[in-house]
Amino acid sequence: MSKNILEVNNLRTSFFTSEGEVRAVDGVSFSLPAGKTLGIVGESGSGKSITSLSLMRLIDHPGKIVGGEVIFKGEDLLKKSKKEMRHIRGNQISMIFQEPMTSLNPVYTIGDQIAESFQIHQGLSKRTAKIKAVEMLKLVGIPSPEKRVDQYPFELSGGMRQRVMIAMALACNPSLLIADEPTTALDVTIQAQILELIKDLQKRLNMSVIFITHDLGVVAETCDYVAVMYCGKVVEYSDVKTLFKNPKHPYTVGLLNSLPRHDMDQEDLVAIKGAVPSPFDMPKGCSFAPRCPFASPICHEKVPELTTLEQGRDVRCWIYTDEWDGDKEVNVNGKEATVNR
């Protein structure tokens, strides 16, 4: 049996609009070893959140998963019935959504919303489920859980609401937790507390975690592996230490160069030129080519495939293939690129 709890192969999700097809997730592939944390990063519009919703089979019309595989514990989730997926969601796979105030139901108490998972997936009585809800609030560090369990979302702070979302997600002890921008709209101190809480609970409950984020600092602090996305595709996949030490894709290098660090002046930050292309007018060839300082003719003509450079490390860039027709001594990150020929 595979050591990976999750294997995503050529996942494709499109939205069919009056203006045409938008390939929001276009051939995404990655794997996640059991008990580890994967960060999925990229600019807004790169397809991170749609990827996470696709994993959960939560794509609504006009969106549709049009191909690929999502192998979870050896079984393809895309072949599961709607009834089977309802049993898996919230039970084996849980998700923390971006904005807790819009994800929590304002007319139900915190306790009722957490207890619902126990009632649906574990068949507990309403009274027993409420007792378990108090235990979950205590687990995520909410003070006076016996009091908070009867309160409504508007009575809690942003940080507490996010902790409630975590409590709901972990209610049935899932094997995989997907956290979509879990620290958005929280101040820095609360962000650190939430991230530390998730890391602590992961160790205690032996979960695998996927972090969806645009914050490379969060990735460096919390993740074991990282998948960098651009325009619906994974352009680089690596263990996190290797990626930060020696990034290979020009887009990854651009993201890291735009990240503030304590040992550099603000003036040294380098922005990635240009903008993400419109999903209705994608460039021919590599989608990053119009913004890439190393782009050669082939980059504007053909879409590169993921190329394996080393064990477990993939890059979607022509530089690392035999078909590269640009400078053979290109230095992508200030060091000589290791070209796989």
Which features does this protein show?
341 residues; alpha/beta; eight-stranded mixed β-sheet; four-stranded antiparallel β-sheet; 11 helices; 12 strands; 30% helix; disordered C terminus
Q: How would you portray this structure in words?
A:
An eight-stranded mixed β-sheet has the order 6-7-8-3-9-10-12-11, sandwiched between helices. The protein is globular and about 70 Å long. The protein has helices spanning 48-55, 82-88, 100-103, 110-122, 126-139, 145-148, 158-170, 188-205, 216-222, 240-245, 250-257; strands at 4-17, 20-33, 37-41, 63-72, 75-76, 93-96, 176-180, 208-213, 225-230, 233-239, 307-310, 313-315. It has 341 residues and is α/β, with parallel strands linked by helices. Helix 4 crosses helix 5 and helix 7 (158-170) packs parallel to helix 8 (188-205). It is built from eleven helices and twelve strands.
Which secondary structure elements does this structure contain, and how are they paired or packed?
Elements: E1 4-17, E2 20-33, E3 37-41, H1 48-55, E4 63-72, E5 75-76, H2 82-88, E6 93-96, H3 100-103, H4 110-122, H5 126-139, H6 145-148, H7 158-170, E7 176-180, H8 188-205, E8 208-213, H9 216-222, E9 225-230, E10 233-239, H10 240-245, H11 250-257, E11 307-310, E12 313-315
Parallel strand pairs: 3-8, 3-9, 6-7, 7-8
Antiparallel strand pairs: 1-2, 1-4, 4-5, 9-10, 10-12, 11-12
Helix pairs in contact: 4-5, 5-7, 7-8
